[in-house]
Amino acid sequence: MDKAVVAVLVGGRSSEHAISSATAGGVLRAIDRDRFDVIPVGITRDGAFVLEDDDPDKFALNPERLPEVVDNGTRILWPDSVRSRELRVQDADGIRSLGDIDVVFPILHGRFGEDGTIQGFLELLDLPYVGAGLWMSAIGMDKHTTKSVLKAAGVPVVPWVTVTGAGLARESDLWHRRIRALGLPAFVKPARAGSSVGVSKVSDWSELDAALATAFAEDGTVLVEQAIVGREVECGVLAGRDGAAPRVSVAGEIVITGRDFYDFEAKYLDAAGIDLVCPAQLHSGELAEMQRVAARAFEALGGEGLARVDFFFTGTEFFVNEVNTMPGFTPISMFPKCWIATGMSYRDLISELIDLARVR
């Protein structure tokens, strides 16, 4: 049987460039080479598409040197119409064909990759791709829009206030009153960023302005969320096959012992003070309710590809914190951990995502 050819996109223009690169390293290492041929395509921080090395070790997470895509002088040439799936590369020796591709796996986190931009580009070329479609990606990337859609669908969400830099400058007192009504502690987040980039925990109102400045450095729109006292639990969701209901993994739990919250260093650099427990200790009824809410949230946003749904569990109610349409796949990431604990290997999970893309 002929192998399917998968173009793996890595890097990107967002502040999560290094995390995308690290995630791609995990996928390159684990993808089933008996079923798939791989063409790694890097996107530099400046947006150049380059032919990357098929070398997982190149993208290993190292706290001393985060992985990145550098401009090696090559340029990927995408198909020139929907009648072709041929990928070509231009280098110092000229232009050569890399052959036809069957599916694109955009392992891109944050803006210009997880937000519908690359999805729209691929749809213009009529190329199948892994993950959420254009609209689900765009909605899922914007935390304010996600919360608004989920709230309208009857999914419990954490109370929040959304503020823009221009609005805050015009009516500072009004917005500060609205924010303070949430109470302390509170979390301040960019509306369109992930991997905890630009996120701060505010325990005293004297910290608010600095937290807002940090978040506004990432995005012109910022959310301030009420801190919910409870356990932080997560689960993975996969689209169902042939119109079937979404599939939801067992739960994982983030146990915080020595940090204020689950920040960038804890997520990706294995910093101390955080334990990822999977499966989480939940009663069968609690797990069933969490899975029900996760599936409902997934379908409310579009129900395509995959997602990781993050919750706060108070002991009586599950509040959706965020929905990630392209969660991390690094060796210490929760999404693969949850599916492995459910009974699906890392390799099979990657294969399933590619297969879902090809039949969508």
Quick summary:
This protein is an alpha+beta fold and 360 residues long.
Assign the structural class, choosing from mainly alpha, mainly beta, alpha/beta, alpha+beta, or little secondary structure: alpha+beta
> How would a textbook summarize the main sheet?
5 strands, antiparallel
Q: Order of strands across the biggest sheet?
A: 14-13-12-15-16
Low-confidence stretches: none
Global geometry:
globular
Strand content: 25-35%
**Number of helices, where a helix is a run of at least 4 consecutive DSSP H or I residues:** 11
Radius of gyration: 20 Å
Overall strand count: 16
Distance between the termini: 21 Å
Mean pLDDT comes to 92
Order of helices and strands: EHEEEEEEHHHEHHEEHEEEHEHEEHH
Fraction of residues in helices?
25-40%
Characterization of the model:
It is a single chain. 31% of the residues lie in helices and 27% in strands. It is of the alpha+beta class and 360 residues long. The model has no long low-confidence stretch (mean pLDDT 92).
Key structural traits:
alpha+beta; four-stranded mixed β-sheet; 27% strand
